Amino acid sequence: MVLGPTARRILPYLNFTIATAALAFQTTVLYPWHHELDTAFHRLKEEQTRMLKDFHEVKLKRIEELEKKVLGVELRQAG
């Protein structure tokens, strides 16, 4: 497809307009949204760390309870 002389004159201005609009969109919408997502990600990471710590503590408590029961059973069988 061959462009006419009018299209050849308008095309650089159209390209510049589209590029400017894209840059404005990136700086006004996407960049602040990136910071918002980053903040939410860090909160999620902290929440996951807290939940894993809680789960680990519950798991250790459960293991201690099972060890006490096993020792109790062994003492009853030995005695």
Count of distinct strands: 0
Query: Beta-sheet strand percentage?
Result: under 5%
Elements, N to C (H/E): H
What would you report as the Rg, rounded to the nearest angstrom? 33 Å
How are the secondary structure elements laid out?
Elements lengths: L4 H74 L1
Keywords: Membrane, Transmembrane, Transmembrane helix
Explain the overall architecture.
With 79 residues, the protein is mainly alpha-helical. Helices cover 94% and strands 0% of the residues. It has one helix at 5-78. The longest helix has 74 residues, at 5-78. It is rod-shaped and about 105 Å long. The chain crosses the membrane at residues 12-33. Keywords: Membrane, Transmembrane, Transmembrane helix.
Keywords:
mainly alpha, membrane, 79 residues, transmembrane helix, transmembrane
Provide a compact summary of the structure.
With 79 residues, the chain is mainly alpha-helical. 94% of the residues lie in helices and 0% in strands. It has one helix at 5-78.
